[in-house]
Amino acid sequence: FFSKPRDFSLPNSSWGPEMMRLYEHYNSQCEAETEGGGKQKGPWRRIPSYNRSLKRKTSFFCVCFSGGVYLSKLIQSKARLFTRSIKEAGAAFEYVLFDNSDAQKCVGILQAGHLLEGPPGFVHGGAIATMIDTVTGAHAAVLSGPVMTANLNINYRSPIPLGSTVLLESSLDKTEGRKTFVSCQVTSSDGATLHTEATALFVSISVRKILD
Ligand SMILES: CCCCCCCC/C=C\CCCCCCCC(=O)SCCNC(=O)CCNC(=O)[C@H](O)C(C)(C)COP(=O)(O)OP(=O)(O)OC[C@H]1O[C@@H](n2cnc3c(N)ncnc32)[C@H](O)[C@@H]1OP(=O)(O)O
């Protein structure tokens, strides 16, 4: 009845060499099968990514983000996760997230497509903010369960060339009661250029409160 949802965080033909290099770098440090058929745990875990959060929810957390229960059936059926809503591969946000629970870090690898243009030849600041929210939000959710972004503070240091691949690194600063504070840096794929710095506050939410 339901087809298997597509996991968009796996390589596709639009991924360039830098995107593939960084993907392999982290993916090779994820759980792997040993020669004896057992499983060897690596420090990183790839976080799967779908284009819908309502029907294809993998956790209750996703239902919160969809706000689905309040939407009309028409809107529900059309709702798509913003970062996965453009069908053409490579045209907008091509990204994959990895989480490292021991180091309390999360990384995002982003290849920014031609539909994300802001200033001529460079990525739109709102698209950069979207990706920072996505990486830090996923990180906070992994750490603290269901959360909403309460504050996102961004310093844009150097523009990101359209079509380039960048690395977003999110680190836990502290947790205080319902509050999870994280920092994020966006750098060029070789780490040589700092593009963007951000801090974010996520507040834990009660799923029951939202549904009520
Ligand atoms: C289980 C793991 C599963 C992992 C799976 C991972 C898969 C991931 C896959 C894909 C990831 C995609 C990720 C996307 C991420 C996107 C996230 C968004 O974009 S969310 C949309 C934008 N955000 C909103 O629309 C919020 C609107 N605001 C609110 O709803 C409320 O203001 C809320 C919930 C944030 C807080 O409201 P209150 O009533 O619950 O709580 P109060 O009492 O106001 O605040 C609690 C504490 O936080 C402080 N606080 C609240 N807002 C603050 C602010 N803006 N600045 C500073 N402090 C603030 C308060 O002062 C208070 O602190 P004191 O406890 O008293 O110390």
> Percent helix among the residues?
10-25%
- CATH class categorisation: Alpha Beta
User: Which overall shape is indicated by the principal axes computed on the Cα atoms?
Assistant: globular
Question: What bound compounds does this protein have?
Answer: ligand 3VV
Structural class: alpha+beta
Q: Summarize model confidence as the mean pLDDT.
A: 90
Poorly predicted spans: 56-64
DSSP, total strands: 9
How is the topology of this model organized?
Elements: H1 17-27, E1 32-33, E2 39-40, E3 45-47, H2 60-66, H3 73-78, E4 93-100, E5 105-112, H4 125-144, E6 147-156, E7 165-176, E8 179-188, E9 194-204, H5 207-211
Antiparallel strand pairs: 1-2, 3-4, 4-5, 5-7, 6-9, 7-8, 8-9
The protein binds ligand 3VV.
What this model shows, in words?
The longest helix has 20 residues, at 125-144. With 212 residues, the chain is an alpha+beta fold. It has helices at residues 17-27, 60-66, 73-78, 125-144, 207-211, and strands spanning 32-33, 39-40, 45-47, 93-100, 105-112, 147-156, 165-176, 179-188, 194-204. The strands form two sheets. Strands 3-4-5-7-8-9-6 form a seven-stranded antiparallel beta sheet.
